[in-house]
Predict the 3D structure of the following.
Amino acid sequence: MSRQESDLCSLLVDETYGPLASRIYRALLLHGRCALPTLARHTHLDLKNLRHGLSVLVQQHLIYWYHPPEERSATYEANLESAYKLVRYGTYLRLSRDRHGPLAERIVLKILVSGHASDSDLTQLQDTAANSSATPVLQNGHKQNGRIIHESDLNKREISKTKVELLQAGLIAKVHESHFRTKEDNRLEAERDTRSVEDFAGDTKKVRSANREAFVDSVLDNWKYGSAVMVEAEEAPKKKRGKRKAEPQEPQAAIKRPRINEGTTGLLNGNSADYLGLSREIDAPHGDIVYSINHAKFDIILRSERLVDIAEQRICKATSRVYKTVLGLMEPHLRECRFVKPCDANDQEEDDPCVKPVSTADILLALDDFPEIYDSLGETQGAGSDSEDLGNPKKRRRKAEEDSKSPFDVDVGLDRFEREHEEDDGDDSDNDSAISEDEEDQIADLDYNPFQNGTGQGLTERDQAIRSHLLLLAQHPLGFLKRGPRQSGALETWTINFNKLIKNVQAQAITQTLSTRYDTQSVRLASLLAERGKLDDKTLSSLCLIKEKEMRTKLFTMQKAGLLELQEVPRDNARLASRTTFLYFFDHERCIRGLTEECYQTLARCLERYRHEREEVKTVLEKASRSDVIGREEKLLNAHERAALKRWKVVEERIWAQIGRVDEMVAWFRDF
Amino acid sequence: MAGLSKARSPTVRAESDAIMSDAPGASSAGSSKNAPSSSEGIKTAVYNYCLAQPKDTTFTQAGLLAAGLFPNNSIITLSHVMHQLCVSGQLKMQELNREIQWRLIAPNVTSSRIGLDREMQLVYDHIESAGREGMWSQRIYKSTGIHKVVMDRILKSLEQKRLIKTVPNYRHPSRKTYMLQSLQPQEDVTGGLFYTTGELDEQLVQGACDWIDWWVVGQSWWFPPSAEQPGRKRKLDAVQGSHRTTAAPSVTKEEAEDRRAVEFAKPRLRNQHMRPYPQNYANYPTIADITNALNVRGVVNGQTMKISDTLLLADILIWDGRLERLKVRAKSGGTKEVYRAIKEPLTLYRREPTKESKDHIEPAKANGLTEAPCGRCPVFDLCEDGGLVNAKTCPYFQEWLEI
């Protein structure tokens, strides 16, 4: 936790839930985990207020709390992640509206406002429709959206339908007791609930403890994703059941604690009873199920959206739409953007085991038709006579060759021979040792079409067109898409190495920051160092072709800003400056961390400025929000007040838009 | 001094010629009787013998003895004579595979060295040994052990005699590097194509980079034909038959250049017209193609570029975020690296400066962080709530909000 981050989070809490909550939150941030009496001492609050504030914070998932059975009192700890997510509430609402309609937005809003909501809370939505638009989170400019729906439409059935839709999409999840505890506490709790090592099968103690460890992990997993797993299980019960059975022993004895509430209804009934963990999902007094927002899923959706934008920027719109479909097909199988793999977290090249490959056929099925599929690659709509040829990539390519080649025939020619014979490629001789086997396969794979020489099953023009977009994505150096391993008889599949892709996008974000803050030459130096590793300035200047003097200034500026690092390697024991080699290097992780801190600080400053601006027009705002003034602003406000109000609206919009944009950077650097 | 050495050289030459003419007699006479004169005779004979051999021949002891130049094939005489010749700068001794060899020094070089004293010769030899790499003055001091004041005088006089010259060293611009007058400095001394007199020619680099970017854009992205003449090229193709390579260029070249000229006049608009080629497009330019194009157009001051030079530029363009490297399948079955321009580069370059700004570079598109005033704030680190610099009184925020 950095100072910038904690500052920002307490500001956000203060902005949204007022000074009482933020005072407690800040104290928790400052002093770490506290019990109630300690907290009272730190905050100088009486217990009544303190309890009140704590309950707000707990309800909003802004703090963790844990009450181990052997202790007398519970302890509290600040939750930075969910506090930061307050910035993203507006985005959540937009996403849920875009994907599942205005009603879904209402449901999400309800849950966001009250931290979590039970079934009965949600069915009462229509009663609270008018109130909900006055909540503070709506500053992001979504105010009017709630009013689109007429109250009469909101019958129970529709609400429950939308709710299930959201549940299935994973945007909301059932709340589990463990969601209120830190990771460490959850592990403690899970370990306490699990039998001792001796009770596990296994020849040696090592095996037994490994088995126990695996079991604890699976319990934790269940606690964390319980609801999501359950919904999936309802969709495909057989498949999930099979998987569960495959896991190592699941002693029923693991569930020592009784359920908090035995009477469960709705989705929890029946087939989900044997799910561990679900037994402790928090149920409301009336037997309702309680839902909360699944931030992880929103991150995934948000990431897909941003990736589609980047694909559009880098390739073209039609391709980005195809990409959107692919990502959409992958989303249901992803639980979190970043999977922490303790053993091989550094291995960038390895495929993420949790990304389920998508087959071409699925993509073809899922993709809506749109005209740009056919004509966005290398040809115009104007060339009507040729349109049927364009389906065939080879013909298209030949056409493209003509187009591009003819103007510069004078220049090329060195390997024109090679090009003429491009068509009949087939031999597998490999002369290029610089490229790894795997890459080689990938590239070679891209030329392979399983439908052309396989079973004779032809592809329609549409399929060909879509497939060429997929191939284009797979070819891109950013690594948008990766073609699955080629297997005879198997369907062609596509997957994404998110680790690699996100790292590339992060690098792009860094270079963009550098290029606006400094200049292109600084970008050049940073990318050069990122690619080549540690270099001294002599080598650097000969590679980047910048005058040495200028280059040193640029390097120094970047190093001072913490974007580059400098290593001193003394050549002898004297350690004199003149006898020392200075090696510059670029550390991606460190740079990302630094920039994230800067983003936090920027967000905090924006918020501070926002509050300051609001303070300046406070009286006008108060007047304008009076019930007798609303709707009659022209009459009751004087010109000066109207101007102030108008300016305020612009300022508000500008600052919040900026906060959203900076948050986008934070998301790339931290969450995706 | 220079005049003197020049004046003397023909005389020496004449002398040696004179000796050469009666050399056979002298050598055959068996000159052991009158030692001083015959020693001179043998010297001349050996020198002439060496001179008569093809250029760059090395002479070994055995070879010289076999030539029968020395009376009684005396090794002592041989070593004595050869030493004399070496001292007088006519031959050079070298060692190869633990065997001593001699090589002839060209008569004009010898003549130029005649006026040199010992120290000068020593310095000259050192500089000569460095060859095309040149020798740093400090290194000469160190290896010869001559005092700096004396050394400076020697170097100055050698320069005046046009025996050595200083060459700019791009790696160490402040170092004085000496080299024989007749040699051309090596590329790792001058820095290659992009350095003129040891200074990096940034404009040249920039120009070449821009040109490559511009050229690769046209090669790696498809531009729809302009609206007023749809299908013009197609018709032409049809008229001129199937053999596209010979007929079409005159028209399409202009057309393509026109198109791209438009794109580059309004850089931000260029990507609206850019369409990707399908994945199996075979005409993405390789590094050889780019080099070829650069050379045909004579972009770099009409000099011929090598692939390594272009690779340097291509790397720079990639680091600048203007090109990207793709790996595609080559016809040989392996893979080859090809280049594609990036559709929306970080900064765009205008071919011609516009009225609004004379700069060739269009400012970079900002991201979330750098758009906010804080992202570019010079006092960002000092800013804190309640501090001297804070968000409430921030003039940058004020400016940003008033836009």
Notes: Chain B touches chain A through 95 residues (CB under 8 Å). Residues 2-112 of chain B form a domain with the Arc Repressor Mutant, subunit A fold (CATH 1.10.10.10).
